[in-house]
Amino acid sequence: MLTDNHGRKINYVRLAVTDRCNLRCFYCMPEHGLDWLSRNELMSYEEMMRICSILVKMGVEKIRITGGEPFVRKDIMQFLTALSKLNGLQHLTLTTNGVLTAPHVPELKKIGVQSVNLSMDTLDRNKFFTITKRDELPAVLDTLEQLIRHNIDVKINAVVMDGKNIDDIIPLVELTKNLPVSVRFIEEMPFNGEGNHYSHLHWHYMRILRKIEEQFPAIQKLQDAPNSTSYNYHIPGHLGNVGIIAAYSRTFCGTCNRIRLTPQGMLKTCLYDDGVLNVRDLMRSNLQDDAVANALTDALHHRAKDGFEAERLRKEKMPAHESMATIGG
Questions:
Q1: What pLDDT score does 28 carry?
Q2: How many domains does the chain contain in total?
Q3: How far out from the chain centre does Cα 223 lie?
Q4: Which segments constitute the Radical SAM core domain (predicted)?
Q5: Measured by CB atoms within 10 angstroms of the end CB, which terminus of the chain is less buried, N or C?
């Protein structure tokens, strides 16, 4: 069992396979994109398989593939297929913006992907273009339809942005009436590739909940699963559920069971730290698996208590141009 210095069991890894994305969501990166990593800077699929194998042997049970956008990386389905066969891995999931995903849904089902997080901040095509700088909402909705058709659990992730998509909260909630999906609203975070564009958070999780309660006063609190990052709710008569993720308020740190690996192999034991161990470089220095595992264990034994401590302990202040695409979504 892999545990940190606070006694928290670590059994969940979020692996970013690329920093590149085919959308330009303003809260994630500048419209012109980022200075993309070179191929040699990225972990190879072989390196990713190796580190995943080591982590699963250490007790990791769930791996979520993220980006950037995973499906912009060439041969991603071959990698996912190989990863799905990893002995001891119980849950393989992914997060996608849905633009390129629909054609792959039958194969995702075949290899055992049980759930997908679909990023979708609005159901309005014009607003979608304003937020992402791309006219791709029809492709995203096609992916949603395919996922539901193939009985893959869907969590729709919507970042709540003051002045951008507040009017979209209720239409997104209404999706849960007839669709078996969980719509989750996420507090906006400061990782937008352009520097913080607000001095404080206007739409925190309690304000989001009050907005939903105004329209659906009968909404009921559900019991949250262990290690849940979201506060979860159900509206009587609806097929799906609603969740709210306090990503900026950081209220779920005490039960955090997850770590991140960035596209260049940097281990992040917290979303808000600046990376604590370069796993890619360890593997490229020809260390044996046991030595890599020991380095991972040592890093976790110096883990920050929560996101606020992690931010304070950064070697450098949070850079103005840090992006979720380079962190690993």
A1: 79
A2: 1
A3: 22
A4: 5-226
A5: N
Give me the helices (H) in the chain, please. 45-57, 76-84, 105-110, 125-132, 137-149, 169-178, 205-215, 279-284, 289-300, 307-312, 324-327
* pLDDT digits 0-9 by tens, 252-306: 788 899 999 999 999 999 988 989 999 999 999 999 999 999 999 999 999 999 9
Say if 3 falls within a structural domain. Answer: no
Domain that holds residue 227: 12-327
Residue type, 203: W
CATH of the domain at 264: 3.20.20.70
Contact present, 163 and 117 (Cβ < 8 Å): no
The span from the CA of 312 to the CA of 20, in Å, is 28
Confirm whether 190 is domain-assigned: yes
* Residue 128 resides in a domain: yes
Q: Is residue 171 in some structural domain?
A: yes
Measured CA angle at 170 (ends 218, 250), to 5 deg = 85
Count of C-beta atoms within a 10 Å radius of residue 124: 15
